[in-house]
Amino acid sequence: MWNTLKRWYHQLGSPRYFYRFADIVLPWLWPLALIVLAIGLVWGLAYAPVERYQGDSYRIIYLHVPASSGALMGYIAMGVAGLVCLVWRMKMAEVMLKALAPFGAVLAAVSLISGAIWGKPTWGTYWQWDARLTSMLILLFMYLGVMVLQSAIRDPRQAARAASLLALVGVINVVIVKYSVEWLNTLHQGATLNLFSESSINPAMKYPLLISMLGMWLLYAANVLMRARAEVLSRERRSGWVRKLVEGH
Amino acid sequence: MNPVRKQRLIVVLAVFLGLALATALAVYALRQNINLFFTPQQVVSGEAPVGTKMRVGGLVMEGSVVRDPETLDVTFDVTDGKGTFTVHYQGILPDLFREGQGIVANGTLVSQERFEAEEVLAKHDETYMPPEVQDALEKAGHPGARKDAAGS
């Protein structure tokens, strides 16, 4: 098991191998992600039962929670890539660091906007400077910061090292986003889905939510692989295998 | 692991842990300001400053909502089980406002027993269920049927 993981780590760490892997996976991942997301969203938005107090307005959860969870997990992945980048100076970690940021920023923005739209009919306000909402806004700024820092420095290796420090430090904020609703008094309610205890959502509402979340994560993965593939090609443009690939077609 | 990488790993982890600790201390020290609202316990014990603008939060006490039939005036008691005070508000309440519901009110604490609200927001809890399930729970006398509506 450990040896298999180690072999994958080294193989996917090679840009050439990664390119081939992405080429094989992507044509399947895109349709799979879109189908899973469509099933989850249609089920949740059209067929899941109404909520006892919120009525139909709770249905925005099927967009809000997948987007928020994607944004949080994407940032943790970016932090791990940052750590690998700083310590092991691995090229593919630099590529992943760059590939993870844009869609993560989009998801963070979707989470904030859908949350505001949900907040108006339920809480009675679009925005409050609540710990959960504010830390989520900071997460969006962290994503944008990582992107801006990368494009501000011309040398890609220097840029990656600067950005990886920001990515790694920002993981602290992810912890604050997650636990703000438990540690502090907030307007935002606590976590509904729990990994280790029973979730406080009716199963008829939970399954479409889990499917939408899976679909959103797959969509994020497909987007990251596509961006990483393009970045690999651009970085390795002078290497033999890329030349052969381009001239061969 | 080769010694250069090992050293880099130690430095990076030390920087990360140091910043995490600094952030934790800062959040802990500033939690009074980061907390969105004062709880009824804090209001009753005098921790919340009287006469200033602030937010308070808690549960609307069952049977305490009094609406003026002529105007939009409404008064209700807010509690957290450890303290209770009365909120007066003039305006339209959010749809989710009910007895037993968690709310956050923005306004002025006139005295330790009375809060003049300018804005009332409804909290909603993390429980989602269809109305039929709620009815079934209430019919069966399930203790969660009302309590979970209270929010946290």
Task: Kindly describe this structure.
Chain A: This is Heme exporter protein C. The complex is a heterodimer of chains A (249) and B (152). Chain A is mainly alpha-helical. Chain A has one domain. Chain A is 79% helix and 0% strand. Chain A contains eight helices and no strands. In chain A, helix 2 packs antiparallel against helix 7. Chain A is globular and about 65 Å long. The mean pLDDT of chain A is 92. By secondary structure, chain B is of the alpha+beta class. Chain B folds into two domains: 30 residues; 87 residues, OB fold (Dihydrolipoamide Acetyltransferase, E2P) (Beta Barrel). Chain B starts with a helix and ends in a 5-residue tail after the last helix. The C terminus of chain B is likely disordered. The chains are: A mainly alpha (249), B alpha+beta (152).
SSE order and pairing:
The complex is a heterodimer of chains A (249) and B (152).
Chain A: H1 2-12, H2 15-47, H3 61-88, H4 91-122, H5 131-152, H6 156-183, H7 203-235, H8 240-248
Helix pairs in contact in A: 2-7, 3-4, 3-6, 3-7, 4-5, 4-6, 4-7, 5-6
Chain B: H1 3-29, H2 31-34, H3 40-44, E1 53-60, E2 66-67, E3 73-79, E4 84-90, E5 102-111, E6 114-122, H4 131-139, H5 144-147
Parallel strand pairs in B: 4-6
Antiparallel strand pairs in B: 1-3, 1-5, 2-3, 3-4, 5-6
Number of distinct helices of chain A:
8
Q: Please tell me what the overall shape of chain A is.
A: globular
Regarding quaternary structure, how should these chains be classified? heterodimer
Output mean pLDDT of chain A.
92
How many DSSP E strands of chain B?
6
The CATH class of the largest domain in chain B is Mainly Beta
Structural class of chain A: mainly alpha
Rg measurement of chain A, Å: 20 Å
Gross geometry of chain B: extended
Distance between termini of chain B?
48 Å
Please tally the β strands of chain A and state the result: 0
The CATH architecture name of the largest domain in chain B reads Beta Barrel
- Could you say how many structural domains of chain A there are in total? 1
Query: Main beta sheet of chain B, described?
Result: 5 strands, mixed, barrel
